[in-house]
Amino acid sequence: MIEGWHVHVYYDAATKPLAEAVRAGLAAAFPQALLGRWHDAPIGPHPRGSYQVAFTPDLFAALLPWLMLNRQGLTVLIHPETGREMADHTAHAAWLGEMLPLKLETLRPG
Hints:
By secondary structure, the chain is of the alpha+beta class. The protein has helices spanning 16-29, 60-70, 85-89, and strands at 4-11, 34-35, 49-55, 76-81, 94-96.
């Protein structure tokens, strides 16, 4: 069962202004989504700076197409929240843009 969704928008120093624009657009278009903190350095399984956007399953059909059209060329990881952290970030994940190698050793099996 999918309890929710996470989007991770990746950026570096050069692309942070683009990430800011995407974030502002997400906040305006989807005020019910939860925007996570900025992480300018890699954290957890994420190999680049990123921020997370958490949202409920009912937003998926609108939020994903919005990201496809408005991601400003940034790499985006989309994954469900099923309680199986490893599977959610690997087998059940989808990418927009470049597929990045995640640091899987930081995730719980599942």
